Amino acid sequence: MTSTATRSAGLLLFRQRDGTLEVLLAHPGGPLWARKDLGAWTIPKGEVNDGEDLVAAARREFHEETGIAVAGDGCMALAPIRQASGKVVHAWAARGDADPAQCASNTFTMEWPPRSGRQQAFPEVDRVAWFTLPEARTRMLPRQTGWLDELERLLAAGAGAAPHS
Hints:
The chain is α+β, with helices and mostly antiparallel strands. The protein contains three helices and eight strands. The chain has a single domain (4-156), classed as Nucleoside Triphosphate Pyrophosphohydrolase (Alpha-Beta Complex). β6 and β7 form a beta hairpin.
């Protein structure tokens, strides 16, 4: 079993707009990501608390990073991935809609500029946006793009209302 310190959980929110499948992705906040775009976007996700149900953690983290509450029923489990850091990310796809202009993120604090001794607060997510799958593949962290293929397969198989596992 993976320890909670090395596990994250998140949601891949999706919708159909004019017959086109779109996913909501988040751009990481803070100065280290400010000038990065292609290959930098991610699903809203975060650490799992001790004893916390993974899908509950995914919904909680999604809400903290976007301000959007997503119901747990209807979430479709996606295959976990291991990030370059070694952290395992558990993800679920959920049908929903949101206005990116209305999203609001929690914040984190870090020393900035480096070695200045000053702590500054930054949003965990500085913006969210809807992307078609081809565009999402160019925007997402490369290790996460497999979730897009998996979402397509699940929807093609009619699993759009499958319960979480």
